[in-house]
Automatic annotation (TrEMBL):
Family matches, as PANTHER family: 3-PHENYLPROPIONATE_CINNAMIC ACID DIOXYGENASE FERREDOXIN SUBUNIT, FERREDOXIN-RELATED
Listed SUPFAM superfamilies: ISP domain
Domain spans labelled Rieske: 4-115
Signal peptide limits: none
Record keywords, A-Z: 2Fe-2S, Iron, Iron-sulfur, Metal-binding
InterPro entries from the UniProt entry: Rieske_2Fe-2S (IPR017941), Rieske_2Fe-2S_sf (IPR036922)
Organism, scientific name: Bradyrhizobium arachidis
Protein name according to UniProt: Rieske (2Fe-2S) protein
Alphabetical list of PROSITE patterns matching this protein: RIESKE
């Protein structure tokens, strides 16, 4: 799997997202609770753009009348039909074995930690002789 630099961390504010095109695929990158998550920008139901999805909390009920919220902002609710997915792995909440959004690994690295690319500018030797700068080509 090839690595792609898609944004600086400041380009995606907390609670926001950014859609990027990688090899012809729309991928949406979310910034939630200090972490970044990348998913295919398409609901598996009818193709709604997940960049428009609501980022909601997981809501569970251990007993009737008692509700607990957790993982605030980490659940996606499709903007068209309300299907819900786990942002960490793309798994649906209603049918986790069959319905899933493609998720992609995300890493945040400092600029100096990024691997040096294969692109190198051609250079030429330079000499100073008396008052003249001489470039050899």
């Amino acid at each position: 799997m090839a690595r792609h630099i898609v944004a600086t961390t400041s380009e995606i504010p907390p609670g926001g997202n950014k859609v990027v095109d990688i090899a012809g695929r729309d991928i949406v990158v979310f910034h939630v609770n200090g972490e970044f998550f990348a998913l295919l920008n398409r609901c598996p139901h009818e193709g709604a753009p997940l960049e428009k999805a609501a980022c909601v909390a997981r809501l569970t009920s251990p007993e009737p009348g008692v509700y607990e919220r957790s993982r605030v902002g980490e659940m996606l609710r499709c903007p068209w039909h309300g299907w819900e997915f786990d942002m960490r792995n793309g798994q649906s909440w209603f049918d986790p074995k069959r319905v899933k959004i493609r998720s992609y690994p995300v890493a945040v690295e400092r600029g100096e930690e990024l691997q040096k690319g294969p692109y190198v500018a051609e250079t030429f030797p330079v000499h100073v002789e008396d008052s003249y700068v001489i470039v050899e080509v």
